[in-house]
Amino acid sequence: MKEKMLLCCWTAFLLAACAADPDNTKYYLLSDSNAPDPVCSAQLGTVAMPGYLNKSNIAVQGDGNQLIYANTHRWAEPLSNAVRRQLGACFGNGAQPTIDVSIDHFHGATNGKTVLAGSWRVRGVDPTRAHHDTIEQRQAGYDALVDSQRALIQGLCRRICSDLAQTEPPPHP
Q1: pTM strictly above 0.85
Q2: How far apart are CA 157 and CA 31, in angstroms?
Q3: How far apart are CA 120 and CA 101, in angstroms?
């Protein structure tokens, strides 16, 4: 009788384990399979990110100042590494000037908008220049959120490169 009861318990345990929900976690890369072409020649210096982005969970702003971390939608790598790689590729890993970037906000929102706010400067030369950009997601969902975050990083890079081109001295003959 004991053996039969033990066998029933083990069978119930195995059935419960098999019926448990599988891990539905999805992992996202900020970069896509197409490496961006360099927009300008610069060296990426420091990239500072706020502490709230030091999580693997993708962050979304809810009502007011509420921040929601997705349980099953996560970054495949630390977001700071991904931002650094995207900006580095955009700058083409040039030698000079050195650009320091500080990200203050970089997240989606439940209203379908995605925001990037921060600043950048040419090390040792320029004062800090503020940058703020908000775009609408093309559709609902985390894939679209990550696509819009990628677009915002590319927009930041284009802005920096455009400003650099306007302030560079003309070449000497």
Answers
A1: no
A2: 14
A3: 4
Domain that holds residue 43: 26-167
Q: Is residue 16 part of a domain?
A: no
Write the pLDDT tens digit of every residue in 31-46: 876 666 788 899 999 9
Cα distances (angstroms) measured from residue 44 to each of 102, 117, 148: 12, 18, 22
Q: Tell me the C-alpha distance between 99 and 112, whole Å.
A: 31
In a domain, 63, yes or no: yes
Assess contact for 43 and 87: CB atoms under 8 A. no
Number of domains in the chain: 1
Listed in sequence order, the residues at least 6 apart from 50 whose beta carbon sits closer than 8 Å to its beta carbon are 103, 104, 105, 106
Query: For residue 125, what is the domain's CATH number?
Result: 3.40.50.10610
